[in-house]
Amino acid sequence: MIDLRTLSRRGFLNMSAAGAAALALPAGLFRAGTASAATLPAVAEEDAVIGFGHVGPITDEGWTWSHHQGLLAVKEAFPKLKKVIEVENVPYSADATRTYRQFVSEGANMIFDTSSTGDFLHEVVKRAPEVAFMECDGHQVMDNLGWYYLAHWYPTYVIGVAAGHLSKTGKLGYVASFPVASVFCSTNAFLMGARSVNPAATLQTIAINSWFDPQAATQAGTALIDNGCDFLFGIMDEAGYLQVAEQRGVWAAMWNTDIRRYGPNSYVSSVIIDFKKFYVDQVGKRLAGTWSPSETLLQMGSGVDRDVWGAKVPADVAKAADAVRDKIVGGWSPFTGEIKDSTGTVRIAKDQKMTDTELYTWDWSVEGVSGLTS
User: Which stretches make up the ABC transporter substrate-binding protein PnrA-like domain (predicted)?
Assistant: First the structure.
């Protein structure tokens, strides 16, 4: 049986049943630290070929656009590279395997899968031991494969704090994609942040079965506001529900990039992602012969953060939320028990601190979240 809760953040986009089966995760999700595999030999910059495979278009102003900015940073940092290969809209199917095999046949020394195609990628990894692979939102380490992702739950909690201050009704809305770990973690962190201000706050979610569907996101945002929500959040790659919030006069926060121009009066902030430094560092290590497979969660302030506050956010709200951000950066975790799930069952005991491993693989809703089932 496929456990849909453990699929990639992008793992449902255009996915068939066969695709889902191929992405089933192995037991023993994490390995501690860095793999012990020997490093790959150095490569002269002028001989190096670097490949990037994306799930969507680089013009989406969201997830794929952000990875493309990392590619551009690599080109700037290493202007003598022989070739940088970039393929958009890589499907979750055997076509992904063919795409990455083509990268290898073109002489790629390092390949980034920016949306975790799982076994479709791993088949190529096993057959190309001389190539370094990194899988975004991956869960497996091999001799020549590592993974990386974002600890997005921390800035999401901070934005939730702002929502707790700004919402007059305490009814928050969330435009979700699928019931996957990144969405559970995002909804939970958002409501927990809001409840630190207003313990009675609730979060209604609507899943639209897509990461990029402006029409569906618009409809979901409208429905949430019609149901009394006065603050919208979500994990979309476009601005559909932000535009609805602007039209209806409610607050909204976003994901991936700063797209406040679509709703300047409603925009509160966004979970901002930035892979540029990470990609430059990884390519630099590959060229120098010091790269080895690793597991990396980019932390708040270093790859992921909250965006500059929106123009209409009151100064006292911004100050209160940023005080919480400072505490988190200083080592405090808001994800400490007691934490109950949506049925009222205690999942995290009093004073027990959730690890990043648990946060990365969160697959249940906290008390107060409705509409999202695993």
Answer: 50-295
Q: Is 275 exposed, middle or buried (0-12, 13-18, 19+ CB in 10 A)?
A: buried
Span of 154-168, 199-213, 218-232 with lowest mean pLDDT: 199-213
Helix (H, G, I), strand (E, B) or coil at 114: coil
Question: In this structure, which long-range contacts are made by residues 30-33, counting pairs with CB atoms below 8 Å and at least 24 apart in sequence?
Answer: 30/139, 30/295, 30/357, 31/141, 31/295, 33/295
Q: Where are the domains positioned within the chain?
A: 4-151+275-298, 153-272+304-370
Query: Rounded to whole angstroms, what are the CA distances from 46 to 42, 287, 289?
Result: 12, 10, 15
Nearest partner of 284 among 58, 109, 100, 52, judged by Cα:
109
Is this structure's pTM higher than 0.90? Answer: no
pLDDT tens digits, one per residue of 247-300: 999 999 999 999 999 999 999 999 999 999 999 999 999 999 999 999 999 999
Which letter does DSSP use for residue 13 in this model? T
pLDDT in tens, 35-87: 445 689 999 999 999 999 998 899 988 899 999 999 999 999 999 999 999 99
Distance (Å, rounded) from C-alpha 148 to C-alpha 282? Answer: 11
**Nearest one of 31, 23, 46, 68 to 274, comparing CA atoms:** 68
- Two tokens, residue 4: 């849909």
In the structure encoding, which two tokens stand for residue 349, read together? 């005991």
| 192 in Cβ contact with 360 (< 8 Å) | no
In the CATH hierarchy, which fold is given to the domain comprising 4-151+275-298?
Answer: Rossmann fold (3.40.50)
Residue 19: what are its φ and ψ, rounded to 5°? -65, -40
Q: Residues 6 or more apart from 272 whose CB is under 8 A from it?
A: 155, 256, 257, 258, 304, 305, 306, 307
So what's the pLDDT on residue 76? 98
Instruction: Please give the DSSP secondary-structure letter assigned to residue 271.
Output: E
Candidates 3.40.50.2300, 3.40.630.20, 2.40.50.40, 3.40.50.300; CATH matching 153-272+304-370: 3.40.50.2300
